[in-house]
Specification:
The protein is built from eight helices and 20 strands. The protein has about 375 residues and is an alpha+beta fold. It folds into two domains: about 150 residues, FAD/NAD(P)-binding domain, CATH 3.50.50.60; about 160 residues, D-Amino Acid Oxidase, subunit A, domain 2 (D-Amino Acid Oxidase, Chain A, domain 2), CATH 3.30.9.10. Strands 5, 6, 7, 13, 14, 15, 16, 17 and 18 form a nine-stranded mixed β-sheet that branches. Strands 1, 2, 9, 10, 11, 12, 19 and 20 form an eight-stranded mixed β-sheet that branches. Helix 1 packs parallel to helix 8 and helix 2 crosses helix 8. It is elongated and about 65 Å long.
């Protein structure tokens, strides 16, 4: 093809791909979003806790820290404007013993350095006034942490992208890409598209997409998180968000309690690296595993109070013997017209609108 058909092709219609499509199309560029599923947001975007993070956990100077704080502010504004269920309900990170109180202070210091506002160490009376069923020695209160209806967010991002001219092609999987003169030609299962830029927002399959398009080789490690739920009669036991201190391994935030925007209460997620990118159900953990973890701060909980919930799979860029990898968000070293938005695990949902702004700037750097 002698002329590019598109300014930007986005591969992946999760929250990152849709937000990027809306941002790029809103700047006046022609955009098509492709996704292998029949509708948008069917993988990690809607298989998570739906928490809007404040920026407590991530190393200073990392993209995760910066884009979480920026993304949360953008998320609250977007959801208010688009009438997406979302609120700043606040979060308690609890110390289950006096020996953990120093760890709370370290977490507060990290979050404050990252720009998370209003963090304070609170006592048991403060916790009991908000969460009477929680037992702890003290807690970190994060007033700007919130929750969002992830499915409603996906739908709002898709509407916004289409409103500004982006086209969504479902059940369209990228097979391979070939550099052309000023374009990348991407062969889908039923057609070929040429674009000046391609954003790889393929989530769990971002490594395969990058390889197929001649980009850098990296590996996505699928990591399953499972949930249990409080039975409806027990949902009044939890009012908002209650977390333990992060897991010492650095691999997760621990089994926590999340009261969702529709009133359900989730216990989880757990964390388990696995081989399959689409295995959500095999070898599920017993309910006792969730209860054992949550009883450290919700002592009244028994197996009779819970039932199985869903599960999700995180797209991690680091193996189980490492504790951190930042977002991969930049021009590809091998194929400069390819923009990587890969390894977007937590806080990816919170950060999606801030990631989109970075992606738009990367597109503009190529086209303009």
């Amino acid at each position: 093809m002698s002329e590019p058909v598109l300014d930007c092709l986005v591969i992946g219609a999760g929250v990152v791909g849709l937000a990027a499509a809306a941002e790029v199309a809103g700047a006046g560029y022609s955009v098509v979003v492709v996704d292998r599923h029949r509708r948008a947001g069917m993988e990690s975007s809607t298989h998570n806790s739906g928490v809007v993070h404040a920026g407590l956990y991530y190393p200073a100077g990392s993209l995760k820290a910066e884009l979480c704080v920026e993304g949360a502010a953008r998320m609250y504004r977007f959801c208010e404007a688009q009438r997406v269920p979302c609120d700043r309900c606040g979060k308690l990170v609890v110390a289950t013993s006096a020996s953990e109180l120093e760890d709370l202070e370290a977490l507060r210091a990290r979050g404050t350095a990252n720009g998370a506002a209003g963090l304070e160490i609170v006592d048991r009376a403060f916790v009991s006034a908000r969460e009477p069923g929680i037992r702890c020695a003290g807690a970190l209160w994060s007033p700007n942490t919130g929750r969002v209806d992830a499915s409603a967010l996906v739908n709002a991002l898709l509407r916004q992208a289409q409103k500004v001219g982006a086209i969504f092609l479902n059940q369209s999987q990228a097979v391979e890409g070939t550099p052309g003169t000023g374009v990348i030609e991407v062969r889908l299962e039923r057609e070929t598209l040429a674009a000046r830029t391609v954003i790889n927002a393929a989530g769990l399959y971002a490594d395969e997409v990058s390889a197929a398009l001649g980009g850098e080789r990296f590996r996505i490690y699928p990591c399953r998180g499972e949930y249990a739920e409080l039975k409806p009669s027990r949902r009044g036991w939890v009012n908002c968000l209650v977390y333990p201190l992060p897991h010492p391994s650095g691999h997760g935030l621990g089994v926590h309690l999340t009261k969702t925007t529709d009133g359900n209460v989730l216990l989880g997620p757990t964390i388990r690296y696995q081989a399959g990118k689409d295995d959500y159900e095999n070898d599920r953990l017993p309910l006792e595993a969730f209860v054992e973890s949550a009883r450290l701060f919700l002592p009244s909980l028994t197996v009779a109070d819970v039932t199985y919930g869903g599960s999700g799979i995180r797209a991690k860029l680091h193996p189980p013997d490492e504790s951190f990898a930042d977002f991969l968000l930049r021009h590809d070293a091998n194929s400069p017209r390819l923009i990587q938005a890969a390894g977007i695990d937590s806080p990816g949902l919170t950060s999606c609108l801030a990631i989109a702004v970075r992606a738009r700037k990367l597109v503009q750097a190529i086209i303009d």
